[in-house]
Design a protein that fits this description.
alpha+beta; Helix Hairpins; five-stranded antiparallel sheet; 19% strand
């Protein structure tokens, strides 16, 4: 508090001191004039020559006093100016410079943030001209150097929107539009901004978000629900149809057995679909516990071959399992890896014509053990290879459904291998066969 009042006290002190000097100078003037008057009245001054001498002496005194007073006032003024410069003007200047520096730093920080934002930002003035734009906005909306205004940018997307509507409608705080830009889908949020002092509109800010992945996920979710509904509806319809037929008529034992076999097959198919869906749900929600242990991959491959021996015999396939190197134990969830091998091997058996050849190779490369399953089956078209790991995706839906496929096996296999640090790769040619390579890390 005292520090804040100090400059004021100094100014008052100097002002009083200058008043004292001026007052003293005035008193000196009065005394000199009174002295002359007294001498005239006392007849000490007898002639004009003596009066002139007295006046000259008074003038010299007054001149000397005036010079001393002016010098004193000038010195005090200089001292006051220096003091005020040091105590008031300099700190004020520093404060202003500091404020300007802070504002520049904030402006630089804002520009840096805008520059590196993944969301696009465009600010338009009241006339629709671009005031500010960041690189993300240019990239997301494919803005060319010739685009300078609101109309230049958004008219080419044929949006039912204009700046007047956004700026002058009082009840409108914001508006959003979804735009397809080449292979991307973006959402643009328009919001007017106003002057803080007079609340008058100054322009529009557009915020651009890339929602391509969200749209894809939403589409996949809808397709997933539709596929699940369809896959469950088909076996349920079959079961209901055959059971109603059995209940309505008196059929011989052989016909009843055939109908019951269809019912059993459809029920198993539905149970497998539900099991696969539960498995995917556990994986998606991270509720699946991965219990990693060390085990022999070659032994597991041969065990899987034995489990499918009946299916192999039915289709008269020739299956060989060869361990091509000294494979160290792998480190993964044994039950999971067994499920993956059984799934891949089952597909090879299903989609290889009767009497086909299937070879299973187990080997080791770098830090990964691998199992390679090669068949000479019907193969997969090249255009379908990049989609075979999608849920419910099937190359030939009617054939896959006829053979009991749900379209979830390969997606589950990939999810399982991802959880265990492994990978899966598929190469195939139509009518020549398929090669599947599964890699699993060793301990």
């Amino acid at each position: 508090m005292k520090k804040n009042n100090k400059p004021l006290i100094i100014i008052i002190f100097v002002f009083i001191l200058e008043l004292v000097i001026i007052g003293a100078l005035g008193v000196t003037f009065l005394k000199s004039i009174n002295s002359i008057e007294q001498k005239i009245q006392g007849q000490e001054i007898k002639d004009i020559h003596q009066l002139q001498t007295e006046c000259r002496d008074v003038k010299e005194v007054i001149k000397r006093e005036l010079v001393i007073s002016m010098v004193a006032c000038a010195l005090m003024t200089i001292i006051l100016v220096v003091y005020l410069s040091h105590m008031v003007i300099y700190p004020l200047k520093k404060m202003i410079e500091s404020k300007e520096k802070r504002e520049r730093a904030e402006e630089t920080e804002i520009k840096t943030r805008l520059l590196h934002m993944t969301e696009g930002i465009i600010a338009f003035d009241i006339n629709g001209k671009i005031d500010l734009i960041n690189p993300a906005a240019k990239m997301l909306l494919k803005i060319s150097p010739e685009d300078y205004t609101f109309e230049d940018i958004f008219n080419k997307f044929k949006l039912d929107i204009n700046m007047e509507k956004l700026i002058y409608l009082e009840d409108l705080t914001s508006m959003d539009q979804v735009i397809d830009v080449e292979d991307k889908t973006v959402k643009v949020l328009f919001a007017p901004f106003r002057n803080e002092e007079n609340n008058k509109p100054e322009g529009i800010i557009a915020v651009i978000q890339d929602i391509t992945e969200s749209v894809k996920l939403d589409t996949m979710r809808k397709e997933f629900v539709a596929d699940v509904s369809h896959e469950l509806k088909t076996p349920i319809t079959s079961i209901m149809g055959y059971t109603d037929t059995l209940l309505e008529g008196d059929y011989d034992e052989e016909t009843q057995r055939e109908f019951l076999q269809v019912v059993s097959s459809e029920a198993r198919r539905m149970a497998k679909l539900v099991t696969d869906l539960l498995e995917l749900s556990r994986i998606d929600n991270n509720r699946k516990n991965v219990r990693k242990v060390s085990f022999d991959l070659g032994a597991l491959a041969k065990e899987c071959q034995k489990k499918l021996a009946i299916e192999i015999k039915k289709k008269k396939h020739h299956v060989e399992c060869l361990v091509t190197a000294d494979v160290p134990p792998v480190y993964a969830d044994k039950d999971d890896i067994q499920r993956v091998i059984l799934n891949i091997l089952t597909n090879s058996i299903k989609y290889t014509p009767d009497g086909g050849n299937i070879k299973i190779y187990v080997g080791f490369v770098y830090n990964d053990a691998y199992i390679k399953i090669i068949d000479n089956g019907i193969g997969i078209p090249e255009e379908d290879l990049n989609r075979i790991f999608e849920r419910f995706y099937r190359v030939d839906k009617s054939r896959a459904r006829e053979m009991g496929g749900s379209g979830l096996g390969l997606s589950i296999a990939k999810e399982i291998l991802d959880k265990n640090g492994g990978s899966i790769d598929i190469k195939s040619q139509v009518n020549k066969g398929t090669e599947v390579v599964i890699k699993i890390p060793t301990k």
